[in-house]
């Protein structure tokens, strides 16, 4: 959905430069470079002759949307209830749980001096 919004709101520009009918440069979002063969009209004191250039430029421009605004007025009561329940349950995932105190955490068991099972000849089979 975000990709669709990005593509629809971005302005696109493709510019092509042709020289003698052949594609010389293709540019996206920027101006195409010319081939340097554009003829400048020569003006003399007696006559002014405009020569036709051998180059041609083609521009394809697509204007993107500028007025994208979310409309919250279109949400009905059921959708509002769903959004409230979803946000409450989603935020509930990140609450900290209480830590329980373990009463015997610092208790050190006594050292075994003798092996009682061996003294009493009790073996698990």
Automatic annotation (TrEMBL):
- Which InterPro entries does UniProt cross-reference here? DUF8199, HYC_CC_PP
Name of the protein described by the UniProt record: Uncharacterized protein
* Species this protein is from: Maribacter luteus
């Amino acid at each position: 959905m975000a990709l669709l919004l990005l593509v629809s709101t971005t302005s696109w520009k493709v510019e092509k430069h042709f020289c003698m009918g052949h594609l010389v440069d293709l540019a996206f979002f920027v101006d195409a470079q010319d081939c340097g063969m554009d003829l400048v009209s020569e003006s003399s004191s007696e006559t002014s002759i405009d020569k036709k250039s051998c180059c041609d430029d083609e521009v394809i421009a697509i204007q993107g949307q500028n007025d994208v605004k979310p409309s919250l007025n279109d949400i009905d009561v059921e959708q509002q209830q769903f959004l409230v329940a979803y946000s409450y349950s989603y935020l509930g995932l990140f609450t900290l749980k209480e830590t329980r105190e373990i009463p015997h955490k610092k208790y050190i068991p006594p050292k075994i001096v003798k092996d009682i099972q061996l003294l009493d000849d009790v073996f698990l089979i």
